[in-house]
Amino acid sequence: MIEYRSIGKTFADGTEAVGDFSLQLPSRTTTVFVGSSGCGKTTLLRMVNRMVDPSHGQVLIDDVDIATRNKVELRRSIGYVMQEAGLLPHRRVIDNVALMMRLKGASKKEARDRAHEVLETVGLDSSLANRYPAQLSGGQQQRVGVARGLVTDPNILLMDEPFGAVDPIVRDELQQELLRLQRELDKTIVFVTHDIDEAFLLGDQVVILKKGGEIAQVGSPADILAEPAGDFVRSFIGLDKGHRKLHVEERNGSRIVVDETGKATGVLSE
Ligand SMILES: Nc1ncnc2c1ncn2[C@@H]1O[C@H](COP(=O)(O)OP(=O)(O)OP(=O)(O)O)[C@@H](O)[C@H]1O
């Protein structure tokens, strides 16, 4: 489990990115931070692998305060997938992925074998392994980014708007692929997006944030849809405009979650 315990972050220039934030992220589930630009999502995410250290409070992983852990070691033990994949342009796809294994001390052969394996896991044809990133489509690059995050088989995977820069069709594909991977791999995923549909699709736990990392609501997609906590959330999730992909309907006395095609996707607990 990842736990934020009353943490805050004020940057050197005085910007308060996060005021006072507490939350538990259960293991082997996906938690999505969603909110408008600048609300502190990335800052919260980066506090899990100490790319950002909090100004106050603690982040714990399995009850250990990560401030007590070696920064480099911690960072290498956690997968990180960033926007636009962040691949090294002068390294071949295979080497971009294998590098993470090399950093953890694997031999060249071991690293490459594992990189091939994980490229296959994310659905990339092995013929692409020897290309350079610029010779791939945006969606393929993003898959490489996911492969790189997974190659060392970390328990925790941090994903910062990983599908933000691809077109909607490829984005749908990548989202479905991530759902499949999560069913297979069972990681603890922390995912950042500003897209509420993506948050509801991928999140077991969805955290809707206001400026300064203030939690407007946290819960399962079904719970948030059924009982939005006030006007900010209603407006953010689009209930006030009546165009939600998912919505709640009463059918035969039960409240069920229905997708945009009218198909029931879940029943709300009483
Ligand atoms: N290194 C930094 N120095 C100063 N201010 C920063 C720094 N990093 C982030 N901020 C500020 O902290 C606030 C929160 O930033 P953060 O990147 O966490 O937001 P976000 O919700 O991820 O935004 P976006 O969706 O635009 O990426 C913003 O006001 C941002 O300008």
UniProtKB/TrEMBL annotation:
Residues 2-237 form the ABC transporter domain. This is ABC-type quaternary amine transporter. Its EC number is 7.6.2.9. GO terms for molecular function: ABC-type quaternary ammonium compound transporting activity; ATP binding; ATP hydrolysis activity. Keywords: ATP-binding, Nucleotide-binding, Transport. The keyword DNA-binding does not apply. Coiled coil: none annotated. It is an enzyme of class 7 (translocase). InterPro entries: AAA+_ATPase, ABC_osmolyte_uptake_ATP-bind, ABC_transporter-like_ATP-bd, ABC_transporter-like_CS, P-loop_NTPase.
